[in-house]
Design goal:
This protein is mainly alpha-helical and 227 residues long. Helix content is 77%, strand content 0%. The chain contains ten helices and no strands. Helix 3 packs antiparallel against helix 4, helix 6 runs antiparallel to helix 7 and helix 7 packs antiparallel against helix 8. The longest helix has 35 residues. The two termini are 39 Å apart.
Length: 227
């Protein structure tokens, strides 16, 4: 469910942004279209479904609680978009993060596969690098634009909308920072400087042991030398 949703919403929103860049920057608040509202409804359905799935099928832990808070904030904000007929393109900006999520979920699938073949090690490495590279523009830069737009238009929007947008943005910023640090550590970019103990509950519980990963990498190197 995660990857199909990310593909649908991420590809649609990226293409929409490329085709309507000027509109995306010019009218995040007032623009409204019933047809273009459908991606908001799809996103709401996904967040509700995933929240219920976590409640009934997953063990309660810090990661699931953080993700649940993220989903609740998303549902609340998208409900406001649906009810007020405002902030449609503002929500589009926020959902642009799903472009990054495509590779994030691909990485998760490869991670859960325990890197069982040598070919998957190379694929995992490529996906992890692409995931980190896309994480910065599609999450942090997008987040920065949303917060900056809210401050610039502080006196042009209702204070309730401003307060709600800032609370949601701060929530998303916190979860994105925690996720980014977790990814950097899990994929070996900062493991020498930040240990799992430093990350505490935010350290990723990978499906494979590091020694197994090392053995697979060694086998992959041996395979390359033999060929």
């Amino acid at each position: 469910m995660l990857l199909p949703y990310s593909k649908i919403s991420g590809v649609f929103l990226f293409v929409y942004f490329c085709r309507n860049t000027r509109l995306m920057f010019a009218s995040p608040y007032h623009y409204y279209s019933f047809l273009e509202l459908q991606i908001i409804l799809i996103s709401m359905g996904y967040f509700i479904y995933d929240s219920l799935d976590m409640i009934f099928n997953e063990t309660l832990n810090v990661s699931s609680v953080v993700l649940m808070i993220h989903h609740v904030c998303s549902i609340i904000f998208l409900t406001v978009v649906l009810a007020s007929h405002k902030f449609l393109l503002y929500a589009y900006w926020a959902l642009m993060m799903e472009v990054s999520s495509i590779f994030l979920h691909c990485r998760g699938i490869l991670n859960q596969s325990k890197l069982s073949t040598t070919s998957m090690i190379s694929l995992y490495k490529v996906v992890s690098y692409v995931n980190i590279v896309l994480f910065v523009p599609f999450r942090f830069f997008t987040q920065a634009f949303l917060m900056l737009w809210s401050f610039v238009n502080l006196y042009n929007i209702n204070w309730v909308f401003f307060t709600m947008s800032m609370i949601c943005n701060l929530c998303f910023l916190a979860t994105n920072c925690a996720l980014f640090l977790r990814l950097l550590h899990s994929d070996g970019f900062i493991c020498d400087k930040v240990t799992s103990d430093n990350l505490g509950v935010f350290a990723e519980d990978v499906e494979y042991k590091q020694v197994e990963k090392g053995e697979l990498l060694q086998d992959h190197d041996d395979y390359d030398r033999n060929t």
